[in-house]
Write a structure and sequence with these properties.
It is built from 42 helices and 27 strands. By secondary structure, it is an alpha/beta fold. Strand 13 and strand 14 form a beta hairpin.
Length: 1445
């Protein structure tokens, strides 16, 4: 063999000699296995074996090849020739399209197959029970019909009921259905209408009909009506055909609509404007409007001459009242849209399901992993795989051992057997050995209960094994509840906590409208009363009507800027724009195929570099359309309001992973280690995924080629024992699924679904070298009562995945030599039971106790480290004189599919006698791998007896006569014996590796101050093993168990000494007590083990109670995640596989919904985002980055807006103290706060992102605005220069316009009072107000760039990068000049009457105001840096009260 994977195919030529197959041929074995020993009687004994024969004619002119034919199936009642044990393995044989054992297909096709006799193809379709009239022969012909795209029912005339055939219309379904049933699935009605196989056409000759040999004819005539056929028909056990698709959809829609109607009724009671009416700012708004109306009415009658500012007061009053009403409308609308948002989304999904129906095309790529909630449900007589939230009450669900119940369900009993004497005899024996009969009890599964063999009791009841065999391990239950009901009700009733912005706004609302506003009113009234009493009345002698303006106008002009008339509209605009930008960005990130890259300035070796991003351009038109949709339309799919998308993402402090497979890890495990025997020891090679390699993986050990002799046999197993297309030349460099029919019969671990053909190629095998191998048969072995399942790991703990030990054995024929080989992969416990030898690279060695213990230790250690192991074995099948095995494709037609055998190892009562144990194991093959109850000495004796028996079995030759048909018992015995005496080749340890970029994603979250939390359902050691692969810390104070020690099957508790010494809390009920009395370690832990859905929800609540903003990322097909999704602040559903739930990055509900898409839409009902399978988690960090940028912009815009409004109020208070007239009228204030400020504030939304924004620690949702006093000081320092210059300009303009002394302007303007100003005095005040307004806006525009970033100076944060702000800067200045020009258009004064220094001061003042902003920001930067350091220290520490020093 050449070096490396690139060596030629001829270098590795797999053949029987590769593993010294000849060494297994026993020269002393003279008696073929299928010949009866002396003294053996032909009478059937008590040990009954059932098998099934599926027959299909391959002649082209027969209608059998065009339609499904129901056939009577033979059952043999035979004894085991291997030993006289009381326990025997039982076999069900499903043949392919090869010639049957006893019956010619022309006769066999007439035999009507009962509904119980399902082959694997019945996984795609099933039959309704056949009703027979009296006198009808059980094998009389029946016409059936089925069409590829539709479900047809063919009713026989003359009152006879006939069989209904249901078929599947999608070709994808054929991938996991044996090809011998493909034609039956694709049949049409026309073929059945003209079928020549009616009873009246029995003797009609057909073209190309083979002439059966004489011996076959003799067998056919003798056994046509044998008891083995009539027995199966006489039982008439019925398998339910389930609900129809229409009935199920109607039930589902009815339940969903009832839930939605109840929710709508609850929402209708909640919607009210009472809360809005009771808000302080609402009451103040009404009060301000009424006060201005009073001022207008009183002034209208009192003023002389008429004061034209009274008209302005009327307009201002109407505008204020209108704005109050507008805000009330917005409040009602937003409340309604928020409360109905999730209900509308659910309604849209259900309506699409009701109108378009469900696409019944079955997706065969569904991975059977713990984090996907799917069930096998019988619909239209077809067994389909549906998400559990699409099941309804009354559905018939097929359960395999290891499946989790989707709801409360009841076991469906089959009618009892009433047949031959041998069956009664078997029932008697079974009842004695196994306990109570199965039919005497009712069995119920609770929701989320694991279906185990112990469910029926130990020992198993009589008749259970019979049903298990006939059902191929698929037990039928009837569902007693609709799973969607609880999930949807919970999703619709959960209430999310208030966001950080909402909490801050409420605190500001309390500060402003409970204190500041009333203080301002009181100050204004007090000043005005003192002014009137001490100045106007006593000194100037002004009449009492002066009080009208002083009390009804001036105080409310002072508070007018503080009333949030414009803020609700601004907030809706900003939030809608931010949500639109985030949604479009998220869609673009999912559609874009470019890679995530670091910025050019970032050093690739910098450990504190921000996360990489994807450079995508967002179309302004698309963003604008989505913005309008979110702002003014009812978006029935997005949840931007109820999930608070923008605020939650921008404030996220914890990201929780609810699942592992398909979310943060690949759905299928990959190979971590390859173990194999090497002489008297074991070796293992580390295997790693490497995208740079041609095959996508490599051996990490450089000297791996020295073990090629050990790796060749197991590499051959990797290449042959798969159906991924490698034998057909399909080339793959990425990990992919191994499609196997094994999971149809039993629940398998995810490792059994991973294809290892790439590893075989890495060893050196080429596809061309496998062309000489032809698959002839498959053997599926299950041990539901294996002693390994008695170990505490599987018996008592709910945190380990339950799996019945199983094995897949394939029989290959090497066409060049005609030899047969058997390749096996399966559960290590079961495979080792079958092995008598092992291959050490040079030859065969006896499987000794030492070697078996080393293999066992490797297996146990791998399980502890969260790995799944698969063992591999091999044996040659030796036939006497090299003859072919007649029932393995006797026609030598490569297009024919092989048959399969279903082997079940029954329950073996415990025995203390070693010899009996050894002989019993020969038949039952249920030797223990771990947890055996035997003593060490008895175990050694049993091992030796077992190995000697297996070795003698493997060294025997199988002998078959060429012209003699194979007896049923002989074929059954062949499948029993062929899996014994195998050669152990090796074992793979496989584990779930994190998805691409996940490890870096978690590290980048830590740099961004976001704690990644993994909720693991597995035990502590397994959870820590996976956490290490994620890059999480696993030392002290790193993992907390959420299982309570008082719970049943709670596990063993903390295992490591440092965890025990740290006195970490155990159980979710102890977390709050620990946080209150001990320390806050539970809030700093990134790993929680032994988690249940209830514990996860409660832990999310605890996080939120302590100020964490929780974002949950989970599987979109895991129904258990719905409640956690609804509870978290923000939820992101991720596809574990392609569900077609989205189209171009958006939820797609057009057309018929595939079941997976409909199920994913319902599970992710509370989720704000839905991630497609290929989307990298870096999309989340980029979304958080943009959300943080937008949130920072909104905060700075709000600070700028509020600071300006407060400066207007303070300016009026100071003018009142200086006895000046009001510096601003009401409409001028409204102009500033409704036009100028929104333009400047909204332009800040377009500020480019800060490169270090993902390196900042976010604040928690608790103890908001603790530095409010400091911010008030900042306000005074930043806006006081602006206030000073505006008052100066106002005074100088007023004085120079009237040409009066300064003393007259301060308290002496108007000899008869303000309501009696002359025309010149009114114009002079208006000129002064407009000049001051220009200076105010001019300085404000120059100050605005300092608010684009909180701490960065203008030198570091260049404002000219924000092009929208540049436009806003010039726009507000132009608008203000236009406003003043219109206001002064008819004024009597000339601009030249105002001194030049007024213009100069106004123009030059930004030179003083802007540096003041920068000085304040420098101080704020120091405080912010101190906060960041303190937060990072708190974030990174894990020190607790009992932590080691």
């Amino acid at each position: 063999m050449a070096d490396g994977p690139g060596r030629s195919a001829s270098d590795i030529r797999p053949s029987p000699s590769t593993i010294s197959a000849q060494s297994l041929n026993s020269s002393s074995s003279q008696t073929p296995l299928n010949k009866k020993a002396d003294g053996e009687t032909s009478k059937h004994d008590e040990h009954t074996t059932y098998f099934l024969l599926d027959i299909k004619d391959d002649n082209n002119d027969r209608a059998t090849s065009e339609r499904p034919i129901s056939q009577c199936s033979t059952n043999s009642i035979s004894s085991s020739s291997s030993s006289g044990s009381s326990v025997s393995a039982q076999v069900v044989i499903d043949h392919g399209n090869s010639l049957p054992r006893r019956l010619d297909k022309q006769i066999a096709r007439r035999l009507v197959r009962s509904d119980n006799d399902e082959s694997e193809s019945d996984y795609a379709y099933s039959y309704t029970p056949r009703q027979e009239d009296e006198g009808t022969h059980p094998c009389s012909p029946i016409e059936g019909a089925g069409e590829a795209a539709d479900r047809k029912e063919v009713k026989e005339k003359k009152g006879k009921k006939v069989m209904t055939v249901y078929t599947e219309e999608d070709d994808d379904l054929m991938e996991e259905v044996p090809s011998w049933d493909h034609e039956r699935i694709r049949t049409s009605d026309a073929a059945h209408e003209n079928s020549p196989y009616d009873g009246e056409d029995e003797g009609r000759p057909h073209r190309h009909q083979r002439r059966p040999k004489k011996k076959i004819n003799r067998w056919r005539q003798e056994d046509l009506h044998s008891h083995s056929w009539s027995r199966r028909e006489s039982q008439q056990n019925v398998r339910r055909s389930g609900l129809t698709s229409e009935e199920a959809v109607q039930k589902l829609v009815l339940v969903a609509n009832q839930i939605l109607d109840d929710k709508r009724a609850q929402i209708a009671k909640k919607i009210s404007v009472t809360d809005w009416m009771s808000r302080p700012w609402t009451l103040l708004g009404f009060l301000t409007g009424i006060a201005l109306l009073v001022f207008y009415i009183a002034g209208y009658f009192i003023s002389d001459p008429y004061q034209f500012r009274l008209t302005g007061a009327l307009v201002e009053a109407l505008l204020v009242l209108a704005m109050v009403g507008w805000n009330g409308y917005l409040y009602h609308r937003e409340q309604k849209m928020t409360l109905y948002e999730m209900t509308n989304r659910a309604t849209t999904i259900i309506e699409a399901l009701e109108q378009s129906g469900m696409n019944m095309v079955q997706d065969t790529r569904i991975p059977f992993i713990p984090s996907i909630s799917v069930a096998r449900v019988v619909r239209d007589g077809v067994v389909r795989i549906f998400p559990v939230n699409l099941l309804v009450e009354g559905d018939v669900v097929e359960m395999l051992y290891g499946d989790v119940a989707s709801g409360r369900m009841k076991y469906i009993h089959k009618p009892g057997s009433s047949g031959t004497e041998s069956i009664n005899q078997q029932a008697e024996v079974s009842s004695k050995e196994e306990g109570h009969p199965l039919q005497t009890r009712e069995y119920y599964l609770a929701k989320d209960q694991v279906f185990k063999p112990s469910f029926f009791g130990i020992p198993p009841p009589a008749g259970l094994m019979d049903e298990y065999l006939r059902a191929r391990g698929r037990h039928q239950f009837i569902l007693l509840e609709t799973p969607l009901e609880k999930n949807m009700r919970t999703a619709l009733t959960q209430k999310r906590p208030d966001t950080v912005l909402t909490s801050e706004a409420r605190k500001l609302e309390k500060v402003f409208y409970h204190y500041i506003v009333w203080i301002v009113i009181a100050i204004e009234i007090l000043i005005n009363l003192l002014r009137f009493g001490l100045r106007d009345k006593l000194v100037n002698g002004v009449s009492t009507d002066q009080l009208v303006e002083l009390l009804s106008a001036s105080p409310f002009y002072a508070i007018l800027p503080l009333l949030p008339f414009c803020l609700p509209s601004l907030w809706l605009i900003a939030r809608s724009f931010g949500n639109a930008q985030l949604l479009i960005l998220f869609e673009a990130l999912q559609i874009s195929k470019t890679e995530y890259e670091d910025d050019e300035e970032v050093d690739e070796f910098d450990t504190e570099a921000p996360p990489p991003t994807k450079d995508v351009e967002l179309s302004p038109n698309v963003v604008w359309d989505r913005f309008l949709s979110l702002l003014i339309k009812w978006d029935r799919l997005s949840l931007t309001r109820s999930t608070n998308l923008l605020e939650s993402l921008g404030s996220t402090t914890v990201i929780c992973s609810l699942d592992r497979e398909g979310t943060i890890a690949n759905p299928f495990p990959t190979v971590e280690q390859l173990m194999f025997p090497d002489k008297e020891d074991i070796r293992y090679l580390d295997v790693a995924e490497d995208s740079d390699e041609e095959l996508g993986l490599k051996f990490e050990d450089n000297d791996w080629e020295q073990y090629l002799s050990c790796l060749k046999p197991v590499g051959l197993n990797f290449m042959l024992n798969t159906n991924c297309g490698v034998l057909q030349g399909r080339k793959r460099s990425e990990y992919h699924r191994r499609r196997s029919k094994l999971h149809v019969y039993g629940r398998t671990s995810p490792a059994r679904q991973t294809c290892l053909c790439r590893l075989g190629k890495c060893i050196g095998f080429k596809e061309e070298a496998l062309n000489s191998f032809a698959l002839r048969a498959e053997v599926y072995t299950f041990a539901p009562y294996h002693e390994m399942l008695s170990a505490a790991r599987y018996k008592y703990s709910q945190f380990y995945q339950f799996e019945v030990p199983n094995a897949l054995s394939t029989v290959f024929e090497e066409t060049t030599s005609g030899s047969y080989q058997l390749l096996t992969d399966g559960h290590p416990a079961l495979v080792l039971d079958k092995c008598s030898d092992y291959w050490d690279g040079n030859g065969l060695q006896t499987m000794c106790d030492t070697m078996e213990k080393k293999i066992s230790d490797f297996f146990q250690n791998a399980m502890v480290h969260d790995m799944q192991c698969i063992a591999y074995a091999y044996r040659p099948i030796n036939t006497a004189h090299g003859r072919r095995i007649p029932f393995l494709n006797p026609a030598n037609d490569d297009s024919e599919e092989p048959g399969c055998a279903f082997v079940v190892l029954p329950f073996k009562p415990p025995s203390s006698d070693s010899s009996s144990s050894g002989s019993s194991e020969t038949d039952s093959d249920s030797q223990s791998f771990t947890g055996a109850s035997l003593t060490i000495q008895d175990e050694k004796v049993r091992r030796k007896v077992s190995r000697s028996t297996l070795r003698s079995s493997s060294s025997s030759d199988y002998s078959f006569e060429e012209d003699e048909p194979v007896d049923e018992q002989e074929e059954e015995m062949f499948y029993k014996e062929v899996v014994k005496g195998q050669i152990f080749l090796g074992m793979t340890a496989m584990c779930h590796q994190p998805k691409q970029n996940v490890v870096d994603f978690i590290e980048d979250l830590g740099l961004a101050g976001i704690r990644f939390v993994n909720f693991s359902p597995t035990a502590e050691r397994e959870s820590k093993a996976f956490a290490e692969r994620l890059g999480l810390e696993t030392d002290w104070n790193s993992c907390i168990l959420l299982s309570s020690p008082d719970d049943e099957n709670c596990g063993n508790g903390y295992l490591q000494s440092h965890d025990i010494k740290a006195q970490l809390p155990r159980g979710i009920d102890q977390i709050r007590k620990h946080l209150e009395d001990v320390d806050d370690i539970p809030l700093h832990v990134s790993l929680f083990a032994e988690c249940t859905p209830r514990a996860i929800k409660e832990m999310i609540r605890i996080f939120q109670e302590y100020g964490e903003v929780v974002c949950c990322v989970g599987n979109a097909l895991n129904a258990k995640n719905t409640e956690s999704f609804a509870l978290a602040d923000m939820s992101i559903a991720m596809e574990p596989m392609h569900t077609r739930a989205q189209s171009k990055g958006r939820l797609s509900l057009s057309g018929r919904q595939p079941p997976l898409a409909a199920g994913a839409s319902l599970v992710s009902l509370p989720c704000g985002l839905f991630m497609q399978y290929e989307t990298s988690l870096y999309a989340v960090t980029q979304m958080i980055r943009d959300a943080r940028r937008l949130m920072s912009c909104i905060r700075m815009g709000f600070v700028f807006y509020v600071g300006t409004c407060m400066s207007l109020t303070l300016m009026q208070i100071l003018c009142s103290c200086m006895l000046l007239p009001s510096p601003l009228t009401g409409y001028q204030i409204l102009w500033i706060i409704w036009i100028i400020l929104p333009i400047l504030a909204l332009s800040m939304l377009f500020t480019p992102h800060d490169d270090n924004i993902m390196l900042l620690m976010p604040g928690k949702n608790i103890e908001h605005l603790t530095g409010l006093t400091r911010f008030m000081v900042y306000f005074l320092l930043r806006f006081l220069p602006l206030i000073v210059i505006c008052i100066i300009i106002y005074c100088t303009t007023l004085i120079n316009s009237l040409g009066i002394p300064a003393s007259q302007a301060f308290g002496g303007l108007g000899s008869n009072g303000w309501l009696h100003w002359t025309r010149e005095e009114q114009w002079a005040v208006l000129y002064a107000q407009n000049y001051m307004l220009i200076a105010f806006v001019w300085c404000l525009a120059w100050m605005s760039p300092s608010f684009l970033h909180r701490t960065f100076s203008l030198y570091h944060s260049i404002p000219f990068k924000n092009k929208v702000w540049i436009g806003a800067f010039f726009g507000v200045i132009i608008l203000q000049f236009c406003f003043c020009a219109v206001s002064l258009a008819n004024g009597p004064f000339q601009l030249g009457s105002i001194p030049w220094y007024v213009y100069f001061l106004g123009f030059i003042w930004p030179v003083i105001a802007v540096p003041a902003q920068e000085l304040v920001k420098m101080h704020d930067d120091k405080e912010f840096t101190r906060f960041q350091k303190r937060s990072k220290l708190e974030f990174s520490t894990k020190l607790g009260m009992h932590s080691p020093l």
